[in-house]
């Protein structure tokens, strides 16, 4: 068991945050490494909702991070998480900047791509909390994605589309994938936007200014919307 107690806010340049490599159970801010199929007994011991009482949601970015899950669902939250390889989908940069200063991720249909992501199993209250933090997204039905899980999986797609500087979306380096799409790190993306928009000298400065309220997120989002994004083809 590992302690993943988060800082008050994750540094925007570290998006999507530190994500464990396999299945895990988040409980009271700590990570327990358990395969999904074995979590039923542990959930019962904790007095938490069973897997069958939960909704499966594909986490495309920081929603797979224990730090972000604790931020969104509460420090005492109990959340099962399963690792999945998703064929036909890529995790790319959404054409908006979050209020905390990161360029967040979105799902993108790409038949050439297979991406390693996580499915989080949220109880009714947790799902409502996470939905409330995603005003720039729609949550859509993705069908069955998890072996041994009979229910459907949903996932968030951006209402803003995807960042594109050359007619193609751009993957997040931080999320492992087999894909021909160009990939950039978070700080590379922030640097590109800072330089192109003229809003800041460096990406880290841009992220900090947005997080501090010195730059409105709409200034960045509007710049991306002006010929530097692609419309979301799903949802």
- Within the CATH hierarchy, at the fold level, what is the topology? Hypothetical upf0131 protein ytfp
CATH architecture name: Roll
What are the low-pLDDT stretches, counting only 5+ consecutive residues below 50?
1-8
What is the CATH superfamily?
A: Gamma-glutamyl cyclotransferase-like
Q: Termini separation (Å)? A: 38 Å
Q: Output the radius of gyration.
A: 17 Å
Q: Based on helices, strands and strand pairing, what is the structural class?
A: alpha+beta
Written as H for each helix and E for each strand, in order along the chain, the element string is EEEHEHEEHEEEEEEHHHE
Number of helices: 6
Number of domains: 1
Structure description:
The protein has helices at residues 39-45, 66-73, 124-132, 186-197, 203-212, 217-225; strands at 2-3, 24-27, 30-32, 55-59, 78-97, 103-122, 137-143, 153-158, 162-163, 171-172, 177-178, 183-184, 229-230. By secondary structure, the chain is α+β, with helices and mostly antiparallel strands. The chain has a single domain, classed as Gamma-glutamyl cyclotransferase-like (Hypothetical upf0131 protein ytfp, Roll), CATH 3.10.490. Strand 2 (24-27) and strand 3 (30-32) form a beta hairpin. Helix 4 (186-197) packs across helix 5. It is globular, with a radius of gyration of 17 Å. The N and C termini lie far apart (38 Å).
């Amino acid at each position: 068991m590992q302690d993943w107690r988060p800082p008050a806010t994750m540094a925007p340049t570290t998006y999507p945050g530190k994500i464990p490599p396999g299945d895990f159970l988040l409980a009271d801010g700590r990570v327990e490494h358990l395969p999904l199929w074995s979590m039923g007994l542990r959930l019962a011991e904790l007095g938490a909702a069973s897997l069958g009482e939960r909704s499966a949601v594909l986490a495309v970015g920081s929603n797979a991070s224990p730090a972000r899950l604790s931020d969104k669902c509460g420090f005492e939250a109990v959340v099962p998480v399963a690792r999945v390889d998703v064929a036909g989908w890529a995790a790319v940069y959404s054409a908006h900047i979050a209020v905390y200063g990161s360029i967040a991720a979105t799902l993108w249909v790409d038949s050439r791509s297979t991406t390693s992501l996580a499915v989080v199993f949220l109880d009714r209250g947790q799902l409502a909390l996470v939905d409330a933090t995603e005003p720039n997204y729609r949550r859509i039905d993705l069908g069955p994605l998890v072996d041994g899980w009979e229910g459907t999986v949903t996932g968030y797609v951006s209402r803003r589309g995807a960042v594109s500087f050359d007619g193609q979306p751009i993957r997040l380096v931080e999320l492992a994938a087999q894909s021909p799409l160009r990939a950039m790190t978070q700080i590379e993306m922030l640097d590109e936007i800072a330089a192109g928009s003229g809003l800041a000298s460096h990406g880290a400065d841009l992220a900090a200014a947005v997080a501090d309220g010195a730059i409105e997120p709409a200034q960045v989002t509007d710049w991306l919307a002006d010929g530097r994004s692609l419309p979301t083809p799903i949802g």
